[in-house]
Design a protein that fits this description.
By secondary structure, the chain is an all-alpha fold. It has one domain: MetI-like fold (Orthogonal Bundle). The longest helix has 37 residues. It starts with a helix and ends with a helix.
Length: 295
């Protein structure tokens, strides 16, 4: 075959592989949503409290814990990961130290979540005496997300700086002004992708939270009209059972007669929340990119 035929065959094969992956993902999502269809539009389930030993129950506080954990984790992860990416791309000089740092980052990116969970248990829960808490869980999952976000930020900043860095510096801007006003806005789509991936891992993480954030708390008897409960729910030093941990707990302990249905409903809600978050973050990121780039 000549080069054109080889190119067409390769293109068709790649399209078939991509279509198979997308179809497999679509079937997986549809299957989860179908199994949890009875609970998706049930507000008593979505916003209700868990009932131990009896049917019914909801995931309201687990849903709140997941969003709260996401917020705290991203507050820790984004500044450090983005700052490390800026340093490696714009300030660090190539050498043995930088290569060693990149090696450490790549090694950390390959760590299993259960290992990070055990590390968080030993360091944050035990040594720093944070106990099973939101802060301990957020610090642990940040260790999982920092390497990936750092690498994404570094690559995005380095690629963007090739196009606009010299032009900005040539017009008299300082290096920090160039990074802040020109490079970062240009790299925003790629950086946002890294943040979305980090957020998805936070939502779906179970092993690290199991060892650091715990599975119980003071929220099963939560009273929305009680000022004390409202304040305590935002405490960083209380246990917090997230949606992913709740799915594992319900399946493993079967603490209620309808445990299987609750697990299916929780899985469906988790999928929908992740999809909505990704879509919202993407739309917001595109608006920010257009605002900064003037498009």
């Amino acid at each position: 075959m000549n080069a054109k035929k080889v190119d067409k065959v390769a293109t068709i094969i790649l399209y078939l592989i991509a279509g198979f992956v997308v179809a497999l993902l679509g079937i997986f999502i549809i299957y989860i949503l179908y199994r949890g269809r009875n609970n998706i539009f049930d507000f008593n389930f979505i916003f209700g409290s868990q009932k131990l030993g009896e049917a019914g129950g909801g995931i309201g506080m687990q849903l709140f814990n997941s969003f709260y954990m996401l917020l705290v984790s991203l507050i820790i992860t984004i500044p450090i990961g983005l700052g490390a990416g800026i340093f490696l791309a714009e300030y660090a000089k190539e050498g043995k130290i930088v290569r060693f740092i990149r090696l450490c980052i790549e090694t950390m990116a390959a760590l299993p979540s259960i290992v990070v969970g055990l590390f968080g248990l030993l360091i944050f829960v035990t040594m720093f005496k944070l106990g099973y808490s939101i802060l301990a869980g957020a610090l642990s999952v940040s260790i999982l997300n920092l390497p990936a976000l750092t690498r994404v930020s570094e690559n995005a900043i380095r690629e963007s700086s090739k196009k606009v860095k010299e032009a900005s510096l040539g017009l008299g801007a300082t290096k920090w002004q160039t990074i802040k006003k020109v490079i970062l806005p240009s790299a925003m789509p790629q950086i946002l992708t890294g943040i979305i991936l980090a957020a998805g891992r936070i939502f779906g993480e179970a092993a690290a939270f199991l060892y650091t954030a715990g599975m119980t708390g003071n929220l099963y008897k939560f009273d929305a009209f009680s000022l004390t409960d409202k304040v305590s729910s935002f405490s960083l030093f209380r246990p917090a059972e997230t949606l992913a941990v709740h799915i594992w707990k319900v399946n493993s302990e079967s603490s209620s007669p309808d445990a299987f249905q609750i697990a299916n409903g929780t899985s469906a809600v988790l999928i929908i929340v992740v999809l909505l978050f990704n879509i919202t973050a993407r739309l917001l990121g595109n608006k920010l990119y257009k605002a900064y780039s003037g498009k």
